[in-house]
Design goal:
- This protein is 20% helix and 28% strand.
- The chain is of the alpha/beta class.
- The protein starts with a strand and ends with a strand.
- The strands form five sheets. Strands 3-4-6-5-7-8-10-13 form an eight-stranded mixed β-sheet, with helices on both faces. Strands 17-16-19-20 form a four-stranded antiparallel β-sheet, with no helix packed on it.
- The N terminus is likely disordered.
- The chain has two domains: 313 residues, Alpha/Beta hydrolase fold, catalytic domain (Rossmann fold); 74 residues, Immunoglobulin-like, CATH 2.60.40.2550.
- The longest helix has 27 residues.
- Helix 1 links the parallel strand 5 and strand 6.
- It contains six helices and 20 strands.
């Protein structure tokens, strides 16, 4: 992979002499084109949706108007929508495509298979796999085009993938999930095979899915350990008040609590431990996807997002232009938990970095523990709380809210084994965890 020079903390910056100053004329670093062209509804593949029906996969292609370059960097953008909906014309991915086309990039905003039912953890994982397969099909589409008709004038050595929310989750999994055994806690080998494996069959078989970087806007990985030394560089932006995909580690909740995911803060901590190139920007107190919209506040967040992603991209291209948006200090403490690789070896130790905002939720009492039927939880802090019970694969097996300081749960239907019980303050998002044993 690319060589990195560590300059400060865990923030890494690159220079590649082989690309010979591609930003010398201002291209990629600034808006050198006044307009762009859009070619809509290009078919890049097909596959079966969660109901078994054939689905044609389409993308919209954005290019600088009047451009004569024949080998251009490509950004493939993936929309959000909780894997239940969304579109390639969603305002955030459309705006990003338009803005970066004016800088000289070409962009593809893709549709992918959405929908799953019942809405639970196992089916949510299947939806992520289907989205990952479709994004890989789109990557292969552009490799195939370059090798055949060269219609889109792509430089396949400079392909980047990114997205917002579910789109970021998709891009992260394409970038860093590379072994089926890594998701064996979520799906059986037979189910993975039935789905088509991690590569899938969404079109253009035989071509590469290699990319040069990942752009993560309010996304997460199921396991931080899937990001490994030597992996492609990562650019992340996330708000600390994100209640849908947590900034740190937490339950992803698009309206229904699904499972634990490792948010951008956890991924940055992992990158720090590995000296992996990762540019990270925190939006203090910002909600989920604050850049998606047309009001003044959303546009201000979009300007910051555009500038920070621009800085990341030109670093990967070898440009020496001054950053428009410097990285800021991450917030909250990110504690890397114990987990093993597929070969059984342990992950690296935690990298200690500066943090802000300590958790002040008092530790709760839980009794009896172990138990086989009823367990009582008791806490002293006031306010509404969310109660989660999560199995060792990260699946939410019980969820409810409580307003009183004591609650008794019936866990008699759960299988014997170890679980994690988490209480989250609905207002402050502070949390406390304890292990529960069911015998």
């Amino acid at each position: 992979m690319k060589n990195a020079t560590l300059l400060t903390g865990c923030l890494t910056f690159f220079a590649f002499s082989a690309l010979a100053q591609p930003c010398a004329s201002g291209r990629y670093a600034s808006d050198v084109f006044s307009n762009f062209d859009v070619t809509s509804n290009i078919t890049y593949g097909s596959n079966q949706n969660f109901l078994g029906s054939a689905t044609t996969l389409k993308l919209d292609f954005y290019a600088p108007q009047g451009d004569t370059a024949t080998a251009r960097p490509l950004i493939i953008w993936v929309h959000g929508g909780s894997f239940l909906g969304g579109s390639k014309t969603d305002i955030d991915v459309q705006t990003l495509s338009e803005r970066f086309a004016k800088k000289g990039y070409v962009c593809a905003s893709i549709d992918y298979r959405t929908g799953f039912f019942p809405i639970d953890s196992a089916n949510a994982v299947k939806a992520v796999v289907r989205a990952q397969q479709d994004l890989k099909g789109a990557i292969r589409f552009f490799y195939k085009d370059r090798a055949t008709t060269n219609t889109y004038k792509i430089d396949t050595t400079r392909i980047f993938i990114g997205g917002s929310s579910a789109g970021a989750i998709t891009a992260l999994h394409v970038g860093y999930l590379n072994d089926e055994c890594e998701i064996s806690d979520y799906l059986s080998a037979g189910t993975i095979t039935t789905l088509g494996g991690l590569e899938g069959a969404s079109g253009n078989p035989g071509y590469s899915t290699e990319v040069q970087g990942v752009i993560n806007l309010c996304g997460a990985l199921a396991r931080y350990s899937w990001l490994e030394a030597g992996d492609v560089p990562l650019c992340s932006i996330h708000g600390t008040a994100d209640a849908t995909v947590k900034y740190n580690r937490g339950i992803v909740n698009p309206g229904t609590a699904l499972m634990y995911l490792d948010g951008s803060r956890m991924l940055f901590e992992r990158s720090c431990a590995l000296s992996h190139p990762h540019n990270f920007y925190t939006f203090p107190n910002a909600p989920h996807g604050p850049y998606a919209g047309t009001n003044a506040t959303a546009l201000a967040y979009m300007d910051t997002t555009e500038n920070f992603v621009r800085d990341f991209l030109i670093q990967q291209l070898g440009c020496t232009d001054i950053n428009l948006q410097e990285p800021n200090m991450p917030m909250e403490t990110a504690n890397l938990y114990a987990i093993n690789y597929c070969d059984g070896s342990p992950v690296d130790e935690v990298c200690l970095t500066s943090a802000i905002n300590e958790n002040t939720l008092a530790t709760f009492e839980m009794y009896p523990n172990p138990t086989s039927d009823l367990v009582t939880l008791s806490w002293k802090s006031e306010g509404e709380k969310s109660i989660f019970i999560v199995d060792l694969a990260g699946r939410v097996v019980h969820y409810q809210n409580a307003n009183s300081g004591t609650i008794t749960l019936d866990v008699s239907q759960l299988k014997a084994g170890n679980y994690l019980v988490q209480i989250v303050d609905v207002n402050t998002m502070e949390s406390s965890n304890r292990q529960l044993m069911i015998d």
